[in-house]
Amino acid sequence: MRNRTAMLLLVLSLCPAPGLIARAETAVSPDTTWMTVLLGGRKIGHLEIEHQRTGDVVTTTQDLVIELNRSGSGIPLGVLTRSVESTSGEPLGFYARSTLSAASTVVEGTRQASGDFAVTTTVGNDARQTLLVWPPGAMLSEGQRLALIKAANHPGQTYSMDMFDPASQAVARVEMMVIGDEKVTLPEGTMVLNHQRQVLKSARGTQIMDLWLDDQGLARKGMLDMLGHKLEMLACSQQCALAPVQKLDMFRAAMVDSPRLLPAYLRSTFLRYRIHAPEGSPQPVISTDEQHVLSLGRGDWMVDIGNPQPGGQPPPSPDDTLPNAWVQSDAPEIRQLAARVVGDAQDDLQKMRRLRSFVSDYITQHGLDVGYASALEVLRTRDGDCTEYAVLLAALARAENIPTRVVTGMVYADRFSGASRVFVPHAWVQSWINGRWQSFDSALRQFDSTHIALDSGDGDPWHFFNVANLFGQMRIEEITPTAELAGNLPPPSVSEPPASAGNGR
């Protein structure tokens, strides 16, 4: 299941409802709630929530706008979701527009007579149609609000809720706990609100979100942890919500310090890492054919990178060669380009080397304000950073029917954005070559043993955002090169020559 970034999932929980008690059978003026968005006490954006009822149809619109700062460049991000439901919470339609780059991603679902939903997903000018069978029990905004109200008067009660995300068309099963009424201080006054806690468990960890609701089920406050800071959404006036944002360098907050300098000659060797995550949390890094992970207990993990061997992760599935809204490997432009670049290559390894080299040279604009663009957008603009390199390379590889995944992780840099000896967020690809998964990094031109994989997927941006909180929780305690390890280990090998200092992100 593809879970959204914690911040956007929190927005799904902020179910507006101040006008839902209206009984008029004609359209009424929409009710609007404004919220300010803070991270670590600094304002990074706002949320506008609008609700309207027409007869027996309830329409809920939530518009989140935030601005993150990355190495001095502002990155505006936005997600607008709209759900259309009956007054009993039955889903009738949904819409989502995500703005993560110059081109928006739009998802629109319309209920058919059969009860299924016709879904159109558009990234840039590329539209794709699918048919969605509605997941049993899944709720949109109004259904969630009704469940929250029903539980509010039962402190200590626990219950489950299946939340449907229009942007990813995925369902998040959350466990709810009613804590009870509390006095809460908001920017413009104090209210007694009902505190409910939401727990989302996934293979990548447990996300806890706290909500404080008024007696109509409207969240007046939401809070969760993100990148080692508290993310808060607080109800306030429009003027308060639209106040200027305060710069917060998210990229610096996501960096993980290295315990030692890693010169170029060490990066091409086998490296052993000791990584610490909060005790009781799930495995912070994934096992791959190049990365072997062993639990040491008490939140410590031994991670060996280099000396690649098959069997570290499952072989490819049909999904690993399919196109999607972000990796449009079936687009004529992508297919024609891939065929031209691989030329007379005799095998998949030679094809991937040619494709990697081409993408490394193709992207000529390296602005840090792109956010996250699709392969077609990158092809047309030649602009981006590590994620754009990765999705374009993945699309070209899949166009040649080479199973390929986009990896989200970290890579070492001697110096980056004013910091020294750090691991920074990064993205690259894995392709199935000669019976194992092999990594290719078109942003840095090489893959080496300082690439630490946290997740892999189909190129959907929510994979990248979904591991964001790991950066704020992990510590690299120790790095040991081959020469310092006890005993004689097999000579290491890596997929490509070692990377030079720096980072494409």
How would you characterize this protein structure?
- The chain has 505 residues and is an alpha+beta fold.
- The protein folds into 2 domains: 6-251, no CATH class; 255-484, C8orf32 fold.
- It is 18% helix and 42% strand.
- It has 11 helices and 24 strands.
- It has helices at 6-13, 141-151, 238-241, 250-254, 264-267, 332-342, 348-362, 375-381, 386-399, 461-466, 468-473, and strands at residues 31-39, 42-54, 57-70, 73-86, 91-99, 104-111, 117-123, 126-132, 138-139, 158-165, 170-186, 189-202, 205-213, 219-226, 229-236, 256-257, 271-276, 291-297, 300-305, 404-416, 419-433, 436-440, 452-457, 475-481.
- The strands form 3 sheets. The chain has a 15-stranded mixed beta sheet with strand order 8-7-6-5-4-3-2-1-15-14-13-12-11-10-9.
- A hairpin with a 4-residue loop joins strand 5 (91-99) and strand 6 (104-111).
- Helix 6 crosses helix 9, helix 7 (348-362) runs antiparallel to helix 9 (386-399) and helix 8 packs across helix 9 (386-399).
- The longest helix is centred in the C-terminal third of the chain and has 15 residues, at 348-362.
- The protein starts with 5 loop residues before the first helix and ends in a 24-residue tail after the last strand.
- The model is unreliable at 1-29 and 486-505 (pLDDT under 50).
